């Protein structure tokens, strides 16, 4: 078996494992985004039919106590108002913060270049992500039985930048026949921008980046500093 055939077998095996893991996680997440209660923190009210909430124009520190929201100017000031959530009402609150995560990139899609068609690369890649995290908390009060706590769902979104290290298969076909080695896995550094969706069980995102191949073949590599599209994936360990 040639080195090229061995590399292709490894790529197909890794690709199958990545897709199998993603399907397993998706199938086991029937309550994606469901949280027990609203976390204490600073929020902006985006939408609400509760007059006391809809009138708020500035971010407030909010704590939940069963079916009541306790509003304050900060986490160190006393409660300024207690708002009881009426039955059958829906409110949306926004929280934002900085987010730092470590992700893997299961695959990169490289556009066609030179003699090479569109490539789906599954070599190992890891990334450190830094960005802005936005949490949309949806509070829905049950219509029956008053004084029940609302159902709380969290939709986590984020945008930011990433840097990392990975590997790429290098052979004569991707170096304009300049490499002296039949085939090897070169070390690359990558950077770019990403959009993240957090399902609280796992994080997944769409990435746009470029690679830098280390070593003498970098100047001949047809993908050097060329854009690619990929997927960021990681488990939520918080």
Strand tally is 13
The backbone outline, from C-alpha atoms, is: elongated
What order do the helices and strands follow?
HEEHEEEEEEEEEEE
Assembly context of the chains: single chain
Q: What are the low-pLDDT stretches, counting only 5+ consecutive residues below 50?
A: 3-7, 9-14, 16-31
Structural class: mainly beta
Report the end-to-end length measured between terminal Cα atoms: 44 Å
Helical amount: 10-25%
Radius of gyration over all CA atoms, rounded: 24 Å
What percentage of the residues does DSSP assign to strands (E)? over 45%
Q: Give the biggest beta sheet.
A: 13 strands, antiparallel
Topology of helices and strands:
Layout: H1 3-27, E1 34-35, E2 41-48, H2 51-54, E3 60-65, E4 68-72, E5 81-84, E6 90-104, E7 108-110, E8 119-121, E9 125-140, E10 151-170, E11 184-198, E12 202-213, E13 227-235
Antiparallel strand pairs: 1-10, 2-3, 2-6, 3-4, 4-5, 6-9, 7-8, 7-13, 9-10, 10-11, 11-12, 12-13
What does this structure look like?
The chain is mostly beta strands and 238 residues long. It has a domain at 3-18 and 88-235. The chain is 12% helix and 50% strand. It has two helices and 13 strands. The protein has helices spanning 3-27, 51-54, and strands spanning 34-35, 41-48, 60-65, 68-72, 81-84, 90-104, 108-110, 119-121, 125-140, 151-170, 184-198, 202-213, 227-235. Strands 1, 2, 3, 4, 5, 6, 7, 8, 9, 10, 11, 12 and 13 form a 13-stranded antiparallel beta sheet that branches. β7 (108-110) and β8 (119-121) form a beta hairpin. The two termini are 44 Å apart. The relative contact order is 0.17.
């Amino acid at each position: 078996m040639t080195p090229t055939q061995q590399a292709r077998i490894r790529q197909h095996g890794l690709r199958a494992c990545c897709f199998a893991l993603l399907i397993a996680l998706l199938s086991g997440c029937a309550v994606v985004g469901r949280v027990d209660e609203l976390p204490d923190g600073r929020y902006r009210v985006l939408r609400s039919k509760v007059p006391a909430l809809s009138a708020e124009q500035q971010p407030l520190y909010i704590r939940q106590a069963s079916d009541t929201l306790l509003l304050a100017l900060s986490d160190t000031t006393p409660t300024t108002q207690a708002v009881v959530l009426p039955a059958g009402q829906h409110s949306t609150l926004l929280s934002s913060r900085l987010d730092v995560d470590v992700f893997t990139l299961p695959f990169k899609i490289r556009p066609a270049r030179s003699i090479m068609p569109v490539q789906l690369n599954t070599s190992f890649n890891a990334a450190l992500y830094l960005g802005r995290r936005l949490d949309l908390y949806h509070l829905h009060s049950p219509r029956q039985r008053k004084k029940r706590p609302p159902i709380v769902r969290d939709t986590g979104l984020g945008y930011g930048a990433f840097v990392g290290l990975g590997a790429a298969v290098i052979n004569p076909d991707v170096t304009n026949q300049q490499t002296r080695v039949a085939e090897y896995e070169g070390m690359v550094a990558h950077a770019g921008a990403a959009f993240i969706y957090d399902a609280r069980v796992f994080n997944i995102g769409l990435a746009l980046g470029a690679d830098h191949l280390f070593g003498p073949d970098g100047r001949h590599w047809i993908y050097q500093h060329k854009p690619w599209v990929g997927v960021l994936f990681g488990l939520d360990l918080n």
